[in-house]
Write a structure and sequence with these properties.
The complex is a heterodimer of chains A (about 325) and B (about 325).
Chain A lengths: L1 E4 H15 L3 E6 L24 H5 L4 E4 L3 H13 L3 E8 L3 H12 L2 H4 L9 E6 L14 H5 L5 E3 L4 H13 L4 E6 L6 E4 L12 E4 L4 E5 L3 H14 L4 E5 L2 E3 L3 H11 L2 E5 L7 H12 L9 E4 L9 H7 L3 H13 L3
Parallel strand pairs in A: 2-3, 2-4, 4-5, 5-7, 6-7, 10-11, 10-13, 13-14
Antiparallel strand pairs in A: 1-8, 6-12, 9-11
Helix pairs in contact in A: 1-7, 3-4, 8-12, 9-10
Chain B lengths: L4 H27 L13 H8 L7 E3 L5 H6 L4 H8 L33 H14 L6 E6 L6 H12 L4 E7 L2 E2 L2 E2 H4 L5 H7 L4 E5 L3 H16 L5 E6 L19 H8 L2 H11 L5 H24 L17
Helix pairs in contact in B: 1-2, 1-11, 1-12, 2-9, 4-12, 5-6
Classes of the chains: A alpha/beta (about 325), B alpha/beta (about 325).
Chain lengths: ~325, ~325
Amino acid sequence: MTQKTIRQALHEALVHEMRRDPRVVVIGEDVSGGAGTAGGRDAAGGVLGVTKGLIGEFGEARVIDTPITESAIMGAAAGAAVTGLRPVAELMFSDFLGVCFDQIFNQAAKFRYMFGGKARTPLVIRTMIGAGRSAAAQHSQSPYHIFTSVPGLKVVVPSNAYDAKGLLIQAIRDDDPVVFCEHKLMYDLKCEVPDEAYTIPFGEANVVRDGDDVTIVALSRMVHYASEAAETLAKEGIECELIDPRTTSPLDEDTILDSVTRTGRLVIVDEATPRCSVATDIAALVADKAFGALKAPIRRVTAPHTPVPFAPGLEKLYIPDPDRIAAAVRAVHEYRR
Amino acid sequence: MQLNRESLVKAWRDMVTIRRFEERVQEEFSKGGIPGFVHLYAGQEASAVGVCANLGPRDHIASTHRGHGHSIAKGCDVTGMMLELFAKQGGLCAGKGGSMHIADLDQGMLGANGIVGGGPPLVVGAALTAKTLQSGNVAVAFIGDGASNQGTTFEAMNLAVVLRLPAIFVFENNGYGEYTGAAYAVGGHDIAGRAAGFGMPATKCDGDDFFAVNEAAREAVERARAGGGPSAIEVATCRFYGHHSGDAQLYRGKDEVRRLREDHDCLKHFRRRVTEAGLLETHELDSVDAEVATLIDQAVAAAQAAPSPDASALLTDVYVSY
């Protein structure tokens, strides 16, 4: 196997599925880029770099460059999905859900239930999340909790290239609308990725690290920070079990509950803001279903309840880091009633 | 184009079905048999039927909150619709959608829509499917004068032009967005002109006149099927009821509705036109009227008799798989 970046893994997933099924199309702003310019199509190759080169193999009919028009992109993708295509629509920054949420929230997510079970909406929305580039308040958020709270949507938050490829292929083959959240600081992150197509089922967490003292549940980029913290803590004699849910909807409740039942201690790490978040959701789940097993209060390590700041120093304070995670784990580990 | 006898009878049947359906829904709503909100289409029949007469079952439409007329014109089952409005098992959406979400994908009906301006982007998607799969199908967005002011509508028109999609934007200007006049709310007072500004052919036609709507739609549909891209049609029409059933309509002029019913009734217009031209006989039209009356009676009786959704339906069909 070869080492591949998340960018390459996602690109490969798209190529596999576009070759496999002519109904798969890619649509969004600058997915090839350069339309109507001297440079011509694919001159830009997509702002995320994931879709670069697709137009050469699949043509303009299946690699569809749009104007900057998020409502029309999401609506067109939803309408195309419910009438026979399998669109992979790009919402460049997840922050832009603010201009197109209706088409996701009131249209795509609702079709199946609202139409009495007749609709299938095989739509994938690829979108970029995350702080850390001083992109400030409107280009840095991680609003997967908003999507997670909507019945009818599935939500994927991959943390590595292997998962990214398998989960994106699964998302494209899935018959429900899927929001696929890619962290903007992880596109160049490498791991071993098979060349062939494979899928990873939704709702199956990855246990990144085994341990009996404290359970850590971490999402997306926070998996790596939690892993760093767990290394440090192991040297102190605290063994953490690190769980990456990989999808927040559906959520693999069993793996989390089984682990907490064993460790009795839980820290949740989430780059999103803390109110009504995936972290609070998991905390509520454990309080509800594993209360008897808890030996310490559940701790959440999250961003503060603020917009994402611009100044690098402030942004660094905003994002949870390995030190804060380690501190939370120590506190939970030391806690005695 | 001269419509043949069969097409004329079908057009009349569809328009009368819509009118009687809406009159009966008003009555049953007032009696308390229909939960929620209903927005009635009576008065606008020539628009839905004039357009949909040019479509086949594989073409798609998206509708508005005022969606019963479009549904009937596109071929949705009237009894299934009535069951849905009554929130009963066997309804088109299993009693889980209701008036504002009535849909039948098997008939190419992508749904009424509770969101003003929700439909046009979806129609762009249906047109994208048609273009990508080279099916020769077209997709039609029915849009009110209210939704002509929504950004989603502008975005949809622009994207349809950019991608040269087989999409048709039918603006039904009935003079009111909820309780506010289009004379106030539509800047420039020229919806077709707005559409033309996006770079597509746009025409205006008289919504009292089925034949005018039908001809405008025929041209637009032919253009779209031939790969000529999107078009827009602004239909001047009127609604005989309020924004929703139960609207006291305090904002309407004295005698306004009475005068509309006298002078701008598209059914009267159609009946006069076809009988004077000798295209259809009065007794043929009357016999369709009688059949429709029976159909609506049966639909209501079926809806009243049907059971409510089982409690288990609450949790089903959120996802295909989860």
